[in-house]
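hey team, just a heads up i'm posting the complex here instead of the shared drive bc the drive is being weird again. everything in one block, sequence lines first with there labels, then the predicted structure for the whole assembly after. its two chains so it's a bit long, scroll down
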Amino acid sequence: MYSDIFLLATAISGVLALAALRLGLPAALAAVAAMLLFLVPGKGALAALPYVGEVSVSMGYHKLPFVAVSVILGLLVALYSPPYLRHLGAPNWYYGVHALYVLSLVYVVLFDNLVFVFLALELSIITSFLLIWYFGYGNRRFVALLYFVWAQAGSMLFLIGVALSGSFSAGTFAAAASPPCWS
Amino acid sequence: MGLLIKMGTAGVHFWLPYAHAEAPTPLSALLSPVHVGLMAYWIWRLRAGAGWPLDALFIYGLATAVYGSLLVFREADFKRALADSTVANMGLLLAAASIRDGAISYAATAILFVGHAFAKAALFMLAGLYIVSLNTRSIGEARWDGRLLAAGALGFVALAGLFGINLIGKAYVATGVPPSLSAAALAVFALVSTAVYSLYLFNQMYRAGEGEVEYPAAMYAAVLAAAAAPYLLLLALPLWLA
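-- predicted structure starts here --
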C-alpha cells in the first residue's frame, strides 16, 4: 500500500530532518535521500476527515518528474551548501530547515487532497521564510516579510478557490457554477 | 489567481525578484526553479475541473515571458537577473500548462519544468560560487577559467532553450499556440526573447574576462551536474515519452 510507504518515508525523512537541526549536513543528506522512497508508484488514503474528506496521496507517471527533480536538486543543493554556509557563518540548523523545505515541496505534489496541498504550501512558505529572514541579503527582513505576505496571499486565494468549489479532492475537482456559499 | 501569484506572473510578480535574489543562494537554487514551478503542475492538474479560459491564460503566459525577459536587461546583479528570468520562464510554464490538448500540455509543462529547474539551479549555484570565491554579485565581474565558462555555457544555452530538453519543451509550447496571427506573433516574440536574454547574460559573463578563480570543488561539481542534466536527460526523454 502506498500509504504505508508514504508514512514510512515521512517518518524517516522527518526524523532525520529534525536531527539535522542539530547534526547538520550528514543528517540533512540522509533525510533528503530518504525522500527517494516517495518515488515508488502507488496510491493510498491516509485517513478520512470530516468536511475535508479522504486524505489521499499518490505517486505516478504525471507526478514523477516534479517530485524526482525536487528531491535530486534538494540533494545537489545540500552537497553544494557547506562552503557557502561557512561563508555566511550559518549554523547547523540551516540544514535541518533545508531538509524540511525539500519535504514540503514533495508534499505539495504528492497530496491529492487540496487542503493538504495548502498545508504543504504553508510548510514551504514558513521554512523558506525562516531562511530568508536569518540568512538573506540586503534588507532581508523586509524582503522576507514581503515574500511571506505575497506567498500567503497566493496560498489563501488557492484555498478559498478550492473551498468555493466544494470539492477538496484533486481527482473530482470542479469549479462550482454557483459556489455553495452563494446559493 | 492564488497559483498565479505564487508563480509570479506579470502584474503579481514584483515580490519574486526581491525574494529570489535576496534569499541565501542555496535557497534561491530551490525557490526559483522548483517551488514556483510546482504551481504549474497544479494549474495543469486542476484546469479540466476549473473551467479556466485556457487561450487567455496561454496568451497571458506568453506576455509574462516577454515582460520577464525585458526585466532581465535592467540588471547587473547576477542573482537579480536570474530572478527576473524566472518571471519569464514562469510565463512559458503557464503557457505550457494552458495548451488546449491535455497530453501536449502535460509534456510541455513537465519538460519545461525539469529543464528550467536544472538550468536555473545551476546558474544560481554558479552565482553563489562567485559570491564565495570573488565576493561579488555582479555578473560583469564574474571572471572565469575554462571550467567555469563551460558550466556557464551549458547553463545559459539550456536556459535559453537552444538545446537540451528545454528546446523540446519550447517546441511543445509552439505547437500549442491558438490559431490566430497575433497569438502566433506573440509566441515567436516570447520564445525568442527568452533565448535572447540568456545569451545577453552569457555575453555579460564572457566580457568579464578570463582570470584565476579559486573555488571549492564540491560547489563546482554541483553546478556542473545541474548544468549538464538538461542535455543528459535528452537521452532519457524518448523512454519517458514512450
